[in-house]
TrEMBL record:
Protein localization: Cell membrane; Membrane
Transmembrane residue ranges: 36-56, 76-98, 127-148, 168-186, 198-218, 230-254, 275-296, 316-345, 366-386, 392-414, 421-445, 451-469
GO CC annotation terms, alphabetical: plasma membrane
Predominant place of localization: membrane
MF terms (GO), sorted A to Z: potassium ion transmembrane transporter activity; symporter activity
Name of this protein: Probable potassium transport system protein Kup
This protein's encoding gene: kup
Source species, domain of life: Bacteria
Membrane topology: Multi-pass membrane protein
Disordered: region residues: 1-27
Species per Swiss-Prot/TrEMBL record: Nocardia aurantiaca
Length: 658
């Protein structure tokens, strides 16, 4: 007869998912400044923002714009001064000095920021939900950014052919489409094989654009006076009607700033900061000022000041280098989309997607097929619909400004709630930062009819998908809980009247959502088949609000109130950047705690599959119910997701109406 035992082993309920020692060790590693980390950051982090000089000033002075900026000395000085100070305030202050200090156990990015907001929301669940929803919308906008960045970046580079050989203008779109197709076709092979080349290529890129910028400045050295904020403020105050509309294009100079924060865990704050301050920022500033000097000297050069700044003999090599740099920029944002989708699935805002790990040594290098093909179709559609980087520029700016504003707002909240800064100081610092961000948002709203609607539409669609899935999961969980019934009562019944069942001398692992309810497959096995296994493991997988969980905190065992009855509940814990491996976690269990060594080589794994159907009176609106059911078909195979052996996995189903 099994003995009653009310303790949980180990008593570890208050663990945050990573030990303090593991967390400190991880931070010390990522905060170590090594040349390899700095060069790696140059290849991955700065591809997007580092290629912005190709198209920013050209878009500002685009004569086809409904609100063109006249090319005269006052405007040129004002524009380049605004570019410089926008980069300094948004990238250096908001992201480098502030955002990268808001890390979640060493990891950054919008999903990490959402986790921090949830954890530190002192105003209750309602405030936490509002702030989290705002963050989810920011993550949704990132998907729009992931579609637009490859299109505008590669287009802008290939358009350099028009400068080298004007008759090649008709070949720009087909060449761009071919490069994009090849880029996405090779995604499944991962970035590890070519990642070593990214850093040196970007080092060459930044040195080249900086050198060309110096050449341009030498033609008109007085342009350096625009480093003074007086020119930016004077342009805004004295020519507000022109400057306001110019902001919609000036914001292109800060596209890619979110990558600095998103890749924090890969390279560390210090490596990213040093790469930005000592190479990327100076090179970009020199390029912008060199182009501005060229525009002042020859006003006919506004059509493509970046490539016209390059000496004639070097233009074709620069087109090739620019194409390589923009492909790298596209690669970075594509892999970022994979990460955001994976992390969103981990915390319940997307269904489980099929994920392939492309590197044995780097868990963060993943490939998500469904996201890959969706992005490819979307990018090609944008290329053939807009056909030029200038036409895409205003769509690009809208996504960037909204994401930056959301990040700034959430950082302000964390500064008060987590960092304990006085409210007056938070207001004093964040008010001007938000004012700058909102000014850019307002300027981009004037470009709605010229493409700014696109990222908003994509963001709203992605936001609706994520929130619908999250809400639908809550509805299904409630109905499923009633079908399953309390787990401890079920175990009590087995303990009191287990002799009526036929016991199979095998090990069975039942995957379940938690330890409060009975796995449907286990209930069906007992009630309909009248059998039970000698060893029953009820396994639940929990995704903790941390990137990774240390080995000592990965597994918790609960005997559900009894010893020696052959039934244990095991909680397998993982971070939101990890892919759960249930068999591997169970293999590390102590036989004394599982009442004997688990025969995992011959164990059967049971899954409870839910078939969704629309109810006559659905809880959500009918269209959202249909959307939720449709999204469910995107779910990855559960056995593959949890790394279960296919030949020993049994699936039992149940129908639930939502």
């Amino acid at each position: 007869m099994p003995q009653r035992h009310d303790s949980t082993v180990p008593a570890d309920e208050e663990s945050a998912g990573q030990s303090v020692a593991a967390t400190e060790n991880r931070k010390s590693v990522t905060d170590t400044v090594r040349p390899s980390l700095v060069i790696g950051a140059l290849g991955v982090v700065f591809g997007d923002i580092g290629t912005s000089p190709i198209y920013t000033l050209r878009t500002v002075f685009d004569p086809s714009d409904p609100h063109p900026v006249p090319v005269d000395p006052g405007n040129v000085y004002g524009v380049v001064s605004l570019v410089f100070w926008s980069v300094l305030i948004i990238v250096t202050v908001t992201y480098v000095l502030l955002a990268m200090r808001a890390d979640n156990d060493g990891e950054g990015g919008i999903m990490a920021l959402i986790t921090l907001v949830r954890r530190w929301a002192a105003g209750g669940r309602r405030l936490a939900a509002i702030l989290a929803a705002l963050g989810i919308f920011g993550a949704a906008l990132f998907f729009g950014d992931s579609m637009i960045t490859p299109a505008i970046s590669v287009l802008s580079a290939v358009e350099g052919l028009e400068v080298v050989e004007p008759p090649l203008a008709k070949a720009v779109v087909p060449i761009t489409a071919l490069i994009i197709v090849l880029l996405f076709l090779f995604q499944h092979r991962g970035t590890a094989s070519v990642g070593r080349l990214f850093g040196p290529v970007m080092v060459a890129w930044f040195l080249a654009i900086g050198a060309c910028g110096i050449g341009g400045i030498r033609q008109h050295p007085a342009i350096l006076k625009a480093l003074s904020p007086g020119y930016a403020l004077g342009f805004l105050a004295g020519h507000f009607a022109i400057a306001f509309f110019a902001l919609a294009a000036i914001v292109l100079a800060v596209t890619g700033a979110e990558a600095l924060y998103a890749d924090l865990g890969h390279f560390g704050r210090r490596s990213i900061t040093r790469a930005w301050l000592f190479l990327v920022l100076p090179a970009c500033v020199l390029s912008y000022f060199g182009q501005a000097a060229l525009v002042l000297g020859t006003r006919g050069h506004v059509a493509s000041p970046f490539f016209l700044m390059v000496p004639g003999w070097g233009r074709l090599p620069m087109v090739a280098l620019a194409t390589a740099a923009t492909v790298i920029a596209s690669q970075a944002v594509i892999t970022g989309a994979y990460s955001v989708a994976s992390q969103a699935a981990q915390i319940g805002y997307l269904p489980r997607l099929r994920i392939a790990h492309t590197s044995e040594s780097t868990p963060g290098q993943i490939y998500v097929p469904w996201v890959n093909w969706l992005l490819l179709a979307s990018v090609l559609t944008l290329i053939f619909a807009f056909r030029s980087s200038t036409a895409l520029a205003f769509a690009f700016g809208m996504a960037v400004t909204c994401t930056i504003t959301i990040t700034t707002l959430l950082l302000g909240y964390l500064a008060h709630a987590k960092w304990r800064l006085p409210l007056w100081l938070v207001v004093a610092v964040w008010t001007p930062l938000l004012a700058v961000d909102l000014l850019f948002v307002a300027a981009n709203l004037t470009k709605l009819v010229r493409g700014a609607w696109l990222p908003l539409l994509i963001g709203l669609a992605a936001f609706m998908v994520m929130t619908t899935w999250q809400r639908g999961r809550e509805v299904v969980a409630g109905k499923r809980e009633r079908l399953e019934g309390p787990l401890r009562e079920f175990v009590d019944e087995l303990w009191r009247d287990g002799s009526r069942l036929v016991t199979i001398d095998r090990t069975a692992v039942f995957l379940n959502r938690g330890k409060e309810t009975v796995p449907l497959a286990l209930r069906a096995n007992v009630e309909h088949n009248g059998v039970r296994h000698r060893q029953i493991v009820i396994a639940s997988v929990e995704t903790e609000p941390v990137p990774r969980v240390s080995a000592e905190d990965r597994v918790r065992i609960d005997h559900l109130g009894y010893r020696d009855d052959g039934i244990v509940h095991v909680t397998v814990r993982g971070g939101y950047m990890e892919t759960p491996d249930v068999p591997a976690a169970l293999a590390g269990l102590d036989p004394e705690e599982t009442e004997g060594e688990l025969d995992l080589d011959h164990a059967s794994y049971f899954l409870s599959e839910i078939e969704l159907r629309a109810a006559a009176e659905p809880v959500m609106s009918r269209w959202r119910t249909r959307l939720f059911i449709a999204i469910g078909y995107l779910s990855a195979d559960v056995a593959d997701y949890f790394r279960l052996p296919r030949q020993r996995t049994v699936i039992l189903g149940e129908r639930i109406e939502v």
